[in-house]
Amino acid sequence: MRVDLTDHEEPEIGLVAMIDCIFFLLMFFMLATTFKQQTSSKPQKELPVQLPTAEASVVRAGSADDALVIGVDRSGGLFVDTRPVTVQELHTILARAAAADPQRRIRIDGDRDASYQHIVRVLDLCQLDGLTNIAMHTRD
Predict the structure, then answer these.
(1) Which of 54, 37, 62 is nearest to 136 (CA)?
(2) Cα separation of 67 and 134, whole Å?
(3) Do residues 114 and 79 make contact, with C-beta atoms less than 8 angstroms apart?
(4) Cα–Cα distance between 98 and 78 in angstroms, integer?
(5) Residues near 118 by Cβ (< 8 Å), separated by ≥ 6?
(6) 4 in the Ramachandran plot: left (φ > 0), alpha (ψ -120 to 50) or beta?
(7) Rounded CA Rg of the chain
(8) Fewer CB within 10 Å of terminal CB in the chain, N or C?
(9) Would the pLDDT of 63 be above 50?
C-alpha cells in the first residue's frame, strides 16, 4: 500500500465540536442561573403599601374653628361635628355649605383603620358639591 504524502487537504473547521461546546455552555448557564419563582399561587394584584403616619403637622391659627369636620369611623360611619349622619344627610349638608361659601374649609377626620373606600366616598361627595378646600386631620 502506498501513502501519498504530497496531497494537501484544505483545513476545515470542526462544526460538530463547536456545536457541542455551545450546547455545553448553554446547559451550564441554564443550570447555574436561578429564576425567582412567585411564592403564592395567586398573582399579586395590589401593591404592598403601608401608608405612613404624620410625624408633624401644621396648625393654622383661627382656621380650625370655621372648618366643617366630617368624621369617618372604622366601619364607614359618617359624623358631622360628632353627630352621626347618613350619606344623604351628608350630601345635603355639603350642598348647603357649598351654596353658602364654595371656599368653605372641610376637614376629614378618618379613623386609621377605616377603609380607603370610605374616605374616597366623602371626597367624592365634596367634589360633587364643588368643595375643593379639603384637609385630612392626623393625630400624633
Answers:
(1) 54
(2) 9
(3) no
(4) 19
(5) 72, 76, 110
(6) beta
(7) 35
(8) N
(9) no
Task: Say which amino acid occupies 60.
Answer: R
Q: How many angstroms separate the CA atoms of 70 and 68, rounded?
A: 7
Task: Please list the residues that pair with 70 across neighbouring strands.
Answer: 80, 108
Supply 46's cell numbers.
395590589
Which residue, among 94, 91, 70, 74, has the nearest Cα to 82 in the 3D structure?
70
| SS3 sequence of the chain | CCCCCCCCCCCCCCHHHHHHHHHHHHHHHHHHCCCCCCCCCCCCCCCCCCCCCCCCCCCCCCCCCCCEEEEECCCCCEEECCEEECHHHHHHHHHHHHHHCCCCCEEEEECCCCCHHHHHHHHHHHHHCCCCCEEEECCC
CB atoms within 10 A of CB 138: 14
Bridge partners for 137 per DSSP: 109
Residue 99 predicted with pLDDT over 50: yes
Sorted by where each starts, the structural domains of the chain and their CATH numbers stand as 68-137 (3.30.420.270)
**Predicted local confidence at residue 56, as pLDDT:** 62
